[in-house]
Amino acid sequence: MKNRVAVTIAGQEYTLVGTEDAGYTEKVAAHVDEKVREVLEGARVSLVDGAILAAVNIADEYFKEVEAAENLRRQLKEYLEEATKLKLELSEAKREIFKLENKKQ
Questions:
Q1: Angle at CA 63, nearest 5°, toward 42 and 36?
Q2: pLDDT value at residue 23
Q3: Is residue 105 pLDDT above 80, yes or no?
Q4: Residue 43 confidence (pLDDT)
Q5: What is the tens place of the pLDDT at every residue in 42-65?
Q6: In the prediction, which pLDDT does 40 show?
Q7: Which DSSP string do the residues of the chain spell out, in sequence order?
Q8: Can you tell me the distance from the alpha carbon of 20 to that of 16, in angstroms, rounded to the nearest whole number?
Q9: Cα–Cα distance measured from residue 6 to residue 65, given in angstroms and rounded to the nearest whole number
Q10: Burial class of residue 28 (count of CB atoms within 10 Å of its CB; 0-12, 13-18, 19+)
Q11: Are the beta carbons of 3 and 19 closer than 8 angstroms?
Q12: Does the structure show a pLDDT above 80 at 104?
C-alpha cells in the first residue's frame, strides 16, 4: 500500500509517495531538509544548486557508512574465524587432558 506524506524541504512543500510509514518518510525528509539548509546557510547558491550540493553530501555520508559497515563485517568475520580456531584448540586441549588423566589412573 502506498502512503502519501506531505513534507517541507527548504521551504518547499512536497508530497512523497512510498510504502514506508509516514514517520520514516518524515524523518528522511527532515534529514534532507537539514542538509539543504546547511548548504544554503554556508553559501550564496540557488535552491537547485543547494539541493545538488546537499545530495552530494548525503551520498558522501552514505558511501562512508557503507565502507564502515563493510569494515565491521570483515572484522566480525575475522573474529568469528578466530573464535572457531580457539574452540578447536580448546577441544583438542580437553581431549589431551582427558587422555593424560586416564593414563595417570
A1: 25
A2: 96
A3: no
A4: 84
A5: 888 999 999 999 999 999 999 999
A6: 95
A7: --EEEEEEETTEEEEEEESS-HHHHHHHHHHHHHHHHHHHHHS---HHHHHHHHHHHHHHHHHHHHHHHHHHHHHHHHHHHHHHHHHHHHHHHHHHHHHHHHHH-
A8: 10
A9: 28
A10: middle
A11: yes
A12: no
Interatomic CA distance for residues 62 and 103, integer angstroms: 61
Bridge partners of residue 12, in order along the sequence: 9
Q: Enter the C-alpha cell of residue 22.
A: 509516514
- Please provide residue 4's backbone torsions phi and psi, each rounded to the nearest 5 degrees: -110, 125
**Which residue(s) pair with 16 in the sheet?**
5
Share of the chain above pLDDT 70, in %: 100
